[in-house]
Amino acid sequence: MNKPINLLVGGLTLFAAQGCKVPKQVAAQADHPNIIYVFPDQYRNQAMGFWSQDGFRDKVNFQGDPVHTPNLDAFARESMVLSSAQSNCPLSSPHRGMLLTGMYPNRSGVPLNCNSTRPISSLREDAECIGDVFSKAGYDCAYFGKLHADFPTPNDPEHLGQYVESKRPAWDAYTPKERRHGFNYWYSYGTFDEHKNPHYWDTDGKRHDPKEWSPLHESGKVVSYLKNEGNVRDTKKPFFIMVGMNPPHSPYRSLDDCEEQDFNFYKDKPLDSLLVRPNVDLKMKKAESARYYFASVTGVDRAFGQILETLKDLGLDKNTVVIFASDHGETMCSQRIEDPKNSPYSESMNIPFIV
């Protein structure tokens, strides 16, 4: 690319880094390429290993976090990488409302994080969403993982008249078929922060409790969908997939929140070698979370790699556009604030956007 590009797309302000590569295969794409949009929650742009590598470090004005992300590093080298994609409302539900509708939070129906005390915050039923658009264009549409865009109501499909969780206010939500906006395959939930004890509702409203770290479980389900195990998709149609992973969203306190093999990359490293941003406050209690946050980043990279590998194994990689992004970032002791998001700071607003 010869010049930086400034774009506004679905609640994102995007600045493409000068000199980043545009993939050659884009020009050769068929009229209707497959599309996969993977967006883990609370994943800051700085937390990708390639920003510390030749060809990338001179394109940004920050030092990349010392993270192990081999799949994203390889993916970046065959992609368009945006150095400054900004989440225009760096908070989970409002961003998702923007992403799904193309409208700002005052129009999408989702101005606040969704819970049962906030009936004003729920994805508009009359909005034409991205799934509706792709479905009308002839795509088989699938949604996996965290949605967090619906007002929770007592609509548990297995316990009529009850919420899907006992705590109040209720945050988690079941999305019935009439509110799925064009997604014909469903394996999702509202929001639930037990990363090794996730649950999901499938297309028919059956609940699943896999007892597996959620990003790896979700990537496994995406792989199964791509292979069309169980005849779950129309192989005559192109597919549009959205994958809303929850980690590296909090909690990030212990091995209950991440995989040990990913934590091992960071467990013995001193905090001042992990939290390298010049505005970080290492005295904050939250600093100890860095090892677990970065472990989740590495685990998400592993899950993402499984999806990419399957695309290549099935011969789908040359006709599939893959996007890796997030809803917002994570301050992680920068700016001396406890709130990981919901602020105008770079650590909160600047998200990955790789195509």
Structural class comes to: alpha/beta
* Overall domain count: 1
| H and E order | EEEHEHHHEEEEHEHHHEHEE
Which percent range fits the helix content? 10-25%
For the largest beta sheet, what order do the strands appear in spatially? 8-7-6-5-9-3-10-12
Largest sheet: 8 strands, mixed
Give the C-alpha Rg: 19 Å
Number of helices: 9
- Under CATH, the topology can be stated as Alkaline Phosphatase, subunit A
Judging from the principal axes of the Cα atoms, what is the shape? Answer: globular
Can you walk me through this structure?
The chain is of the alpha/beta class and 355 residues long. The protein has a single domain (5-354), classed as 3-Layer(aba) Sandwich (Alkaline Phosphatase, subunit A). It has helices at 70-76, 92-101, 105-108, 130-136, 214-226, 260-263, 271-274, 290-313, 346-349, and strands spanning 5-9, 12-16, 34-38, 85-87, 140-146, 185-189, 200-202, 207-208, 239-244, 320-325, 350-351, 353-354. The strands form 2 sheets. Strands 8-7-6-5-9-3-10-12 form an 8-stranded mixed beta sheet, sandwiched between helices. The chain has a 4-stranded antiparallel beta sheet with strand order 1-2-4-11. It is globular, with a radius of gyration of 19 Å.
